[in-house]
Amino acid sequence: MEGGKGEKVGKRRVIVIVLDSFGIGELPDAADFGDYGVNTLRSCYKSSFLSIPNMAALGLFNIDGVDFATKAAAPKGKYGRLKEASKGKDTTIGHWEIAGLITPHPLPTYPEGFPEEVLGPFREATKRGVLCNKPYSGTEVINDYGDQHLRTGDLIVYTSADSVFQIAAHEELIPPEELYSYCRIARGILKGKHGVGRVIARPFIGKSGAYERTVRRHDFSIEPPQKTMLSLISEAGQEVLAVGKIHDIFAGKGMTEYVYTEGNADGIDKTLLFMEKDFEGLLFTNLVDYDMLYGHRRDVDGYAKALSYFDGRLPEIMAAMRDDDILMLTADHGCDPAYEKSTDHTREYVPLLIAGKGIRPENLFTRDSYADIAQTVCGYLSVDASLLKGKPIELP
Question: Does residue 326 share a domain with residue 247?
């Protein structure tokens, strides 16, 4: 059993790749979240830079509700759309649901900024003041407060429509490791009713009027409230390999090995390196550029180019699959780059495309929860998932 390409190795592997924020149309309750007429895929489809023939061949344009593109005559994979059953539209809740947890109540948000009962202990512990303290664009906040930050040494603390406590600091004043220590302090304070989904380090560089964020962002997530598919798979003696911010989203729980990434191209490269390993279990990748670089910045063409880049490398991923490997492509929420009412995530269905040599093409229609992924992954790996939500999809 050499484990080479195309050989039967007797080990089952599932590769789940999350195209972060790749929504495909508003959910029925989108208006409750302030979203109207949103559709990330449709907005990108209008860009002349979009070219995704490989995802189209798997059935992307055949999914329920995708009525603006030419459908594949004979899709090569299973295809459908997933509702978000959790009450949220953020990264943490979306990934938790993919992993089998449904969150009935949204994580706390702070449209008026954080209260003194949070900031007081934070200032005392860090020995630094706080600037901003309100929802803000990540690129604008460093330009508006960067000079004052460098002059005073105070930390730029801000939030968004998501459940996040973000700290921006210039790397020449506060090195990333020191910034991370401040984030750990905040994570220790933000518990209970103030248990935000993520504390995020946002280091930046540059000079006045030309500040820019660096790739040394780091997320400190709240721990999942119960076991996820990651923990169940690793406790069953199989491997869980995490690429990108998966480690941070799940607070390190359930992974046997992980790597961080510096963008989508690096994430794809590291996914392919993990696929060379002779392992049994789950390879779980997040590709964040769609959300971070293009969705929030409302860059339609940039988003379309990023999707096209991934699609261009999809044959490379599929060629690296072994006979019994299963590939799942999905997302964690939407972030419509053409939506003008806000720069926040959008409440959308997400796609599910399933490919593999033994996969029988099938329309999965509309399914009730992202958690169906967890049930399907665990079922294929013969791992007991009775603790998790969702309904399994039958695989070979």
Answer: yes
Question: Looking at the structure, do residues 206 and 232 belong to the same domain, yes or no?
Answer: no
Helix (H, G, I), strand (E, B) or coil at 56: helix
Q: Is residue 254 part of a domain?
A: yes
- Residue 172 to residues 83, 165, 211, Cα–Cα distance (Å): 44, 22, 12
Among the listed residues 255, 245, 263, 301, the one whose alpha carbon sits nearest the alpha carbon of residue 281: 255
CB atoms within 10 A of CB 384: 11
**Hey, how many other C-beta atoms are within 10 angstroms of the C-beta on 31?**
12
Residues 130 and 237 in one domain: no
Residue 2 predicted with pLDDT over 80:
no
CATH number for 216: 3.30.70.1250
Range of the domain at 154: 116-221
The answer to whether the Cα torsion of 135, 139, 141, 142 is positive or negative is positive
The model's pTM is 0.88
SS3 sequence of the chain = CCCCCCCCCCCCEEEEEEECCCCCCECCCHHHHCCCCCCHHHHHHCCCCCCCHHHHHHCHHHCCCCCCCCCCCCCCCEEEEECCCCCCCCHHHHHHHHCCCCCCCCCCCCCCCCCHHHHHHHHHHHCCCEEEEEECCHHHHHHHHHHHHHHHCCEEEEECCCCEEEEEEECCCCCHHHHHHHHHHHHHHCCHHHCCCEEEEEEEECCCCCCEECCCCEEEECCCCCCCHHHHHHHCCCEEEEECCHHHHCCCCCCCEEECCCCHHHHHHHHHHHHCCCCCEEEEEEECHHHHHHHCCCCHHHHHHHHHHHHHHHHHHHHCCCCCCEEEEECCCECCCCCCCCCCCECECEEEEEECCCCCCEEEEEECCCCHHHHHHHHHCCCCCCCCCCCCCCCC
CATH number of the domain to which 257 belongs: 3.40.720.10
pLDDT digits (tens, 9 = 90+) for 89-145: 999 999 999 999 999 988 999 999 999 999 999 999 999 999 999 999 888 999 999
Distance CA 172, CA 246 (A): 28
